[in-house]
Amino acid sequence: MTDSESPKIHIDSDWKAQAQAEKERLSAEAEQKTDTDQGAGGMGEMPPANFETLIGTFVTQALFALGAIPDPRTGQPSLSLDLARHNIDMLTVVSDKTKGNLSKEEEETLATTLYELRNRYVQISQAARQQ
């Protein structure tokens, strides 16, 4: 074979640039999605939608209303006995409506949670009346 007859190898260096551009595009999309999820009050990754999360939502709201969790805007606890009572009542509705449909562990968790919240509510409401 002569030089003119030797096989020619064509190197496509464009694929590297295309792959890099695609990688950058995907990275930008992922970053934008993260910004969108966390912007406008978003929290990023959400907790699983399950029974424990449902109960935890009401517990958190009740504790917030009882002043156990400070207001994130002011850093100060605020007391709203009506709101606390409402969230405890909502947990009671969940308990009543799910009787016989929960695992033993879920029943015990819910019963213990309600007991503790009710006790805390009574203690705080009595202390508030004495002031």
TrEMBL record:
<protein>
    <recommendedName>
        <fullName>DUF1844 domain-containing protein</fullName>
    </recommendedName>
</protein>
<feature type="region of interest" description="Disordered">
    <location>
        <begin position="1"/>
        <end position="49"/>
    </location>
</feature>
<dbReference type="Pfam" id="PF08899">
    <property type="entry name" value="DUF1844"/>
</dbReference>
<dbReference type="InterPro" id="IPR014995">
    <property type="entry name" value="DUF1844"/>
</dbReference>
<feature type="compositionally biased region" description="Basic and acidic residues">
    <location>
        <begin position="1"/>
        <end position="36"/>
    </location>
</feature>
